[in-house]
Design goal:
heterodimer, A: 179 residues, mainly alpha, Rna Polymerase Sigma Factor, Chain: A, Arc Repressor Mutant, subunit A, 2 domains, 9 helices, globular, B: 145 residues, 6 helices, 0% strand, rod-shaped
Chain lengths: 179, 145
């Protein structure tokens, strides 16, 4: 089976096609979700929810050439909704949720965890593009296709995201150093 | 292009090797003349190289498997549950109707069973009403358990 056959099966409400697509993209979906949410169990929930939503919406689609860029928009919205709900919850209860533990998400030493913590402090759009470029090693063309933005916007968003990261990371490093 | 602001996004492109040869020569020309942009480019290069070494932990295979299950399994389970509960309830109702309409049963026995059934319905109803009232007035319902 290939992707276009799988998409055609899904549009005929045949779950075998969707099973094929899930197997193809579930790992990638998990990495993208964990990049947004910084928490593996929440990322797993977001993936499950997004795949279920995608399965329900596929038969109604007029045309679909590539599955993942379309699915990514569902996953992205799901993750952003979760982030918004988390903030609302913190505002209502006046209690900050326990911080995500970078050790559970990132491999490596303390410095890598500090880098991840700095990333987590950025706004989601900046974190998203930095993770796509540096962790997934996506090209500008791939990022442009996935986020549905022009190449120029990819370049300028990356520039601003890197500046924001630099600001947060250097500040954290400076504060962490002994006087 | 004339101001530094217009060149700044191109610094990212240069860093990633994503510029056309024309863009590369334009940015390089600017970097030779502008020490501020040169400094910014070197800083970007240094700090963002930290990001290249990051890698996310592999997810567990069981977690990936749980992302999607064929809907048939869920449908079959739900219909099995529905048939089982439906069967029990109709059998219970049938037994009760038979019990109350059968003349051979003693009146005292019928009263006792009726009292038990009515009592259970009343207690169950009160519990549900109390749960609804306490949910409406619960100030901590936003707090996750």
């Amino acid at each position: 089976m290939n992707e276009s056959t799988a998409i055609a099966l899904c549009r005929d409400r045949d779950p075998r096609g969707f099973e094929f697509l899930v197997k193809q993209y579930r790992r990638e979906a998990y990495y993208h979700a964990v990049g947004f949410l910084g928490n593996s169990s929440e990322a797993e929930d977001a993936c499950q929810e997004s795949f279920a939503r995608a399965y329900a919406s596929m038969p109604g689609l007029k045309s679909l050439v590539a599955f993942y860029p379309w699915f990514y928009q569902i996953l992205r919205n799901g993750c952003l909704n979760r982030i918004r709900a988390r903030r609302r919850h913190e505002a209502v209860t006046d209690v900050e949720d326990a911080k995500n533990d970078p050790q559970l998400v990132v491999e490596g030493d303390d410095n890598k965890r500090d880098v991840w913590s700095a990333l987590e402090q950025l706004k989601p759009e900046f974190r998203e593009i930095l993770i796509l470029k540096h962790i997934h090693e996506s090209s500008y063309a791939d990022i442009s296709k996935l986020l549905d933005i022009p190449r120029g916007t990819v370049m300028s968003r990356l520039y601003h995201a890197r500046r924001a990261f630099q600001h947060v990371y250097v500040k954290a490093k400076y504060q962490g150093e002994p006087q | 292009m004339s101001t530094c602001d217009e060149y700044k996004p191109l610094l990212s492109g240069l860093l990633d090797g994503e510029l056309t040869s024309e863009e590369v020569s334009k940015v390089n020309e600017h970097l030779i003349r502008c020490s501020a942009c040169r400094g910014e480019y070197e800083e970007l290069q240094k700090e963002t190289s930290q990001l290249d070494s990051l890698s996310i932990r592999e997810p567990q295979d069981e977690a990936l498997e749980a992302f999607w299950r064929l809907p048939y399994g869920k449908m079959v389970r739900n219909s099995g549950l529905f048939l089982m509960i439906g069967g029990y309830l109709s059998f219970l109702c049938y037994g009760l109707v038979k019990f109350f309409t059968d003349d051979s049963e003693m009146l005292f026995g019928k009263f006792s069973v009726a009292a038990m059934v009515i009592g259970s319905v009343v207690v169950f109803g009160i519990v549900i009403i109390e749960r609804v009232i306490s949910y409406k007035t619960d100030p901590y319902k936003e707090v996750e358990r």
